[in-house]
Amino acid sequence: MLIDLHTHSSVSDGTDSPAELVRAAHRAGLDVVAITDHDTTAGWDDAVRAAPAGLTVVRGMEMSCVGRGIDGDPVPVHLLAYLFDPTDEVFAVELERLRDERTGRIRSMAELLAVDHPEIVPDEILAATGESAGRPHLARALVEIGAVGSVQEAFDGYLATESPYYVAKVDTPLDRAIEMIRTAGGVSVVAHARARTRGRLLDPQHIRELVGHGLNGVEVDHADHNPADTRFMRELADELDLIATGSSDYHGGNKNLRLGEHTTAVEQYERILAAATGVPAAVSSLS
User: Fold this and answer.
1) Which of 75, 94, 76 minimizes the C-alpha distance to 84?
2) pLDDT 10s digits, 227-278
């Protein structure tokens, strides 16, 4: 089985619609694909309805969190949540707050960019986003006006954390997020914790502490992990008896990543299914 547990659709910062995403997953030979848009479940129903026969869709999400960095200071962290109940009231309220944070941040950054690039129109950018606005929407706008040659160039310059156009947002503390996911019947997995090219790293000791809050797993195989860091994460998963996942982090045309570029072992996927009590995985279009 080929299992990819981390992908994004146009509901957040990917370029494929949820229906296009699951069809692309089927063409890529995947047996299981998780749709994990940022801070939203809005793509779930479309993905499940469009899933070709034989493809299992895992309902998931990537949550914006904050943890403790190696240097002791707060660091942004992405937390993958699988098969949770989206009607859980406390969790739903927090996700709505996160989406509001995203919208406010992208508007603020667009307004700053518009001072130097009047072709940037904040209202138009926000109108073109899915439910969960993100920096890739600004990056595409910068490409369209010719300010940069690629989405990556925008992230390396205009949208980098040290850029004068950058605006921070208030994310959910990791321990609280994990507890909310657990209460909603879901499974939590820290995403790409050793992605050095993205900036400062999460303290591994913080991951150890999160086990006590209900953390289920860590993403081990990922395009942003070098071989040494992949080994480190696998050893950490073994040490803590955590689920070890692998995935593409596919974003369609926004990133040069292939569906199924990294995958999750069947036995690790089965551990996720066994731990979840929120919603089931959806098996093809027959669900």
Assistant:
1) 94
2) 999 999 999 999 999 999 999 999 998 788 999 999 999 999 999 999 999 8
Taking the CB of residue 47, how many other CB atoms lie within 10 A of it? 28
- CA dist 271 and 104 (Å) reads 37
End-to-end CA separation in angstroms for the chain = 20
Q: What values do phi and psi take at 97, rounded to 5?
A: -65, -45
At 18 the pLDDT is 97
- Residue 26's alpha-carbon distances to 9, 13, 22, 271, 283, in angstroms, are 15, 21, 6, 23, 12
Give φ, ψ of 32 to 5 degrees. Answer: -135, 135
Query: What are the C-alpha distances in Å from 199 to residues 1, 34, 183, 208?
Result: 33, 26, 31, 21
In 10 A of CB 214, how many CB atoms?
Answer: 17
Largest CA distance in the chain: 53
Distance of CA 203 to the CA centre of its chain: 19
Q: Which tokens in the block code for residue 155?
A: 């992230």
> In terms of pTM, does the model score above 0.85?
yes
